[in-house]
Amino acid sequence: MVCVMVFCILFSVFTVANTNSFYTKQYIAVGAEKATGMTIEDLDKTTAMLLDYLNDRRDDLNLEVEKWGKAEQVFDDRETSHMVDVKNLYATAAKVMYISLALSAGILIYLFIKDGKAGFFTGAIKGYKVAVAISAILIVIFGAAFTFGFNTFWTMFHEVVFTNDLWLLDPRVSTMINMYPLPFWLAMCTSMLTRFAIIFIAIYPVLNTLKKYFSR
Length: 216
What we know:
The chain has a two-stranded antiparallel sheet with strand order 1-2. Helices cover 79% and strands 4% of the residues. By secondary structure, it is mainly alpha-helical. It has one domain.
C-alpha cells in the first residue's frame, strides 16, 4: 500500500502536468500574455512543445514566436539548458512511478494468492490505513509549506533536485520565468496534492466493498 501511495502521488503529478487546459487557465490567471509579450495562442504552442519534449515526442525546444511584435525563439540558451535537467528529472520520476506500479501489482498478487480472498482484503485495509497515516502527514506538511512558505519550499526543492544554478532565471529577460511565476507553481502543486488526496481516499471504499463481497 505504500507502493500504491507512491504511485498515486506520481500519477497525480503527471496527470496535472500533462493537462494542457490547466496551463491555459493559469496563463490567464498570472497574466502571462502581458508579462511575456506573447499571445495566448503562442503560449499554448509553447506548452504543447514543452510537453512533447518532456514526453520524448521531440528532441529540441526550437519554436519561433512573436514577443512584443518581434519574431524570435521562445527560449534562450540558459532556459533550454535548464529544460535538459528538467527532462532528466521527469524521466526519473516516470521510472519511479512505473516501478511503484509494478511492485504494487506484484506484491498484491502474491499476497492475494498467499492469504486468500478474505484474508487478503483484511490485510490490504490494514496496510492502507498505515499508508493513509503517512499520506496525511505528507499532506499536512506540504499543505502548510504551500500556504505559509511556498517560496522557501520551492527554492529548497530546486536546490535539492538540481546540481547547478540554471534554474535561477532573471524575470527581466527570461520568458520562461514570466510564463511560470511562483503563483503558477503554487496552483500546480496544490492541484497535484488535491488530486492525490481524492484518488487515494477513493481506494478505501473499493477495498471495503471487495472485502465484504469476498467475506460472504
